[in-house]
Amino acid sequence: MKQAIIIGAGLGGLECGILLSKAGYRVTVLERNAAPGGCIAGYRRGGAYFDTGFHYAGSVGPGETLDVILKGLGLDDLPWKPLEGEEVIAEGRRFFLPFGFDAYADALSEAFPHCQASLLSYTKFLSEVVQMPLSHFGEGRAMDLFSRSACEYLERTIPDPLLRKVLCGASTRLPYAPELPLYSFAQINASFLRGAARLAGGGETLVRALVSTFEAEGGTLLCGAGVSALEAEGGRVKRAVLSDGRTMEADVFVSDIHPALTNALLSPQALRPAYRKRIASLRQTGGFTGFSLRFREGAFPYLRRNLFLAPERGTVWDGAASAGLFFAVPPEGDFAVTADILVPGAESGGAGRWLSAFDAVLPGVAEAVEEVIVSTPQTWERYLGLPQGSAYGIAKDFSHPLSTVLSPRTPLENLFLTGQNLNLHGVLGVSMTALYTCAEISGMPFVKKQLGI
Ligand SMILES: Cc1cc2nc3c(=O)[nH]c(=O)nc-3n(C[C@H](O)[C@H](O)[C@H](O)COP(=O)(O)OP(=O)(O)OC[C@H]3O[C@@H](n4cnc5c(N)ncnc54)[C@H](O)[C@@H]3O)c2cc1C
Q1: Given this model, what pLDDT does residue 138 score?
Q2: How many angstroms separate the alpha carbon of residue 257 from the centre of ligand 1?
Q3: Are residues 325 and 255 part of one domain?
Q4: Is the pLDDT score of 271 beyond 80?
Q5: Which domain holds residue 17?
Q6: 151: CB partners within 8 A, 6+ apart
Q7: Which atom of ligand 1 has the smallest separation from the CA of 10?
Q8: Would residue 398 count as lying in a domain?
Q9: What is the CATH number of the domain that holds 36?
Q10: Ligand 1, atom 34: nearest CA belongs to which residue?
Q11: Is the pLDDT of residue 137 over 70?
């Protein structure tokens, strides 16, 4: 039986673990932390469970992309809790945006009747992108859209600047920057607008389901097993060296960690300096400051929507301050137990400013908070090794799609990459990328068969 080693038990690593086990490999996933999950792992404090890098996901309705992938992996009955929509507050106005392309376009057409035709073409375009065949990920039409500017597309097709602000209102969903490719913008937004949900039990439920499915397929997960080196000979990786000195050999190695950190595990002779330099020179997306809120019992109702504050001045494209409030994790009863405020970038001012800003639109929310736990991009760098605490990995650039959208292949024949740094971030993007990685190893027909597509 062929052996595979996967470095990192993040979402991408665990999904590849399941697929490669199904493909007949004996798979070991090596995780440096004490627990698996990476960004989607949460933590407990004061009796409450807090999510960190998982608040909601799109595309989980029957037959939608993430649903197809998760079911294809064997995760059949995850307890998704659908959301009713999202609310964007921009220039003093509140916009409730229901999910579903038609309902979304109708709601916005009421507020912006002069933009009805633009909104219809916008949602038509998003629905085309979200329905692109999974097997074409990373090629053809997707790569064409990777080479177009999201910002330019919106300015050209949406005449009203306030409407553009509302369309980009969910500012924490994407690494907004002038370089953002149209593909990333369209695929991620479309997947959420079609319908989004939180998970009962939060990210921990997904991690548990991934690990138990992986182990049921015969895989082995070793936590507290950081990889400190990869030894290569003759253009192939021979073995992984663990931080406690153990070594493990395999036929195939998959890295779910940042590509530059993967390269750093290899000796200078193993890779051409030009490849190393190219990967090291890629820009990272920014990180988040997170304010995890614990509510007093019964003090504030659970809301089935996320709220976003659009920038007061400037736009998300130039990095103006914005924030999202997520009532993750869904509670058992009617009252919120925890919630998260996410602010792009390193925010030095504390929770007060954002709590008051959300309190202005949700009266009583600030008063209901008993405890605030702060995390910064440095927290993410320290716990997960994300370079600069980058939330969404390597920044994609529409003007350099071929160098910023990475292939799962590396110059070493049996070393593959996966995870959010390659193509697309988030639960959906990482899951799509896991397929893409495993298709390179076991062939697209195998992946298609697993997913029944
Ligand atoms: C604040 C925040 C909020 C987010 N919210 C959402 C959301 O609501 N919805 C959504 O869809 N997405 C969200 N995301 C994005 C999503 O969480 C990530 O895109 C995804 O989980 C990344 O998975 P990954 O497998 O690529 O990498 P990671 O989760 O980074 O996993 C990599 C793993 O490798 C391990 N590792 C590192 N170095 C080594 C080593 N040397 N040896 C062994 N193991 C190692 C790490 O400990 C980690 O467990 C959010 C992200 C952040 C940061």
Answers
A1: 64
A2: 9
A3: no
A4: yes
A5: 3-41+200-281+403-451
A6: 178, 180, 317
A7: 31
A8: no
A9: 3.50.50.60
A10: 8
A11: no
